[in-house]
Amino acid sequence: MPSAQTLLQVDDISLSFGGVKALQGVSFDVKAGELFSIIGPNGAGKTSMLNCVSGRYHPQVGSIRFREKEITRLKPNQRCNLGIGRTFQNLALFNHMSVLDNIMVGRHHLLKNNFLTGGLYWLTGARKEELEHRRQVEEIIDFLEIAHIRKAQAGTLSYGLRKRVELARAVALKPDLILLDEPMAGMNHEEKEDMARYIIDLNEEWGMTVVMIEHDMGVVMDLSHRVMVLDFGKKIAAGLPDEIMANATVKKAYLGEEDDDLVDSEGEVA
């Protein structure tokens, strides 16, 4: 069960691009240990919200706090250092690099050396630290069942495997909060089942708090502890999965009318 402690607090966030209002007064909180999903029709502002949390966008209005620390104006790398990792809707791997090297990139911010201590460090602890990073990366590779492609160039892999590698790189950051932007988009049924299992294990066994955007309503309702719904940049509902499924306003946002079925037979948004 999710902890009662608030890990992420988002208050009254508004974001505009010129005359386009991407987000309008959105507030929500995420508890430590929670799997929290953000859903909504295309263009609802879901990815914009994740970009505000990760630091890619800076909202004109509102506040974002992580572990009670104000982070609204911090840069993405500063938020990463605090324990926030993410994946992207559009894959952001280094296609010319191996799977192993892509995942190792996720460990970069954990390196201990700096300009002043670098010389001494490389004479003393560098080898030990490198071995520890390799050990943790190998653990992630085993967990995500990608040992067979560890030496393959990322750009040569299938879309489903590349999505898994990107998740591995985000996990390598050792985040307390991981932001997943459509982790199952473009996957077949078997790949979705595997990804759902990995996300559950990251949440329950690895102790990561998860904020996820996903269009597959079957997955969202099965995995999530709570769900928030955006429409035209505004929050129109939030609550338990069953409450969201029964919400007439949510149905209308998705279907344009009050229909009894929010999802089709394949679990996709109708």
Automatic annotation (TrEMBL):
<dbReference type="InterPro" id="IPR051120">
    <property type="entry name" value="ABC_AA/LPS_Transport"/>
</dbReference>
<dbReference type="GO" id="GO:0016887">
    <property type="term" value="F:ATP hydrolysis activity"/>
</dbReference>
<dbReference type="InterPro" id="IPR027417">
    <property type="entry name" value="P-loop_NTPase"/>
</dbReference>
<keyword id="KW-0067">ATP-binding</keyword>
<keyword id="KW-0547">Nucleotide-binding</keyword>
<dbReference type="InterPro" id="IPR003593">
    <property type="entry name" value="AAA+_ATPase"/>
</dbReference>
<dbReference type="InterPro" id="IPR003439">
    <property type="entry name" value="ABC_transporter-like_ATP-bd"/>
</dbReference>
<protein>
    <submittedName>
        <fullName>Branched-chain amino acid transport system ATP-binding protein</fullName>
    </submittedName>
</protein>
<dbReference type="GO" id="GO:0005524">
    <property type="term" value="F:ATP binding"/>
</dbReference>
<dbReference type="Pfam" id="PF12399">
    <property type="entry name" value="BCA_ABC_TP_C"/>
</dbReference>
<feature type="domain" description="ABC transporter">
    <location>
        <begin position="8"/>
        <end position="257"/>
    </location>
</feature>
<dbReference type="InterPro" id="IPR032823">
    <property type="entry name" value="BCA_ABC_TP_C"/>
</dbReference>
<dbReference type="GO" id="GO:0005886">
    <property type="term" value="C:plasma membrane"/>
</dbReference>
<keyword id="KW-0813">Transport</keyword>
<dbReference type="Pfam" id="PF00005">
    <property type="entry name" value="ABC_tran"/>
</dbReference>
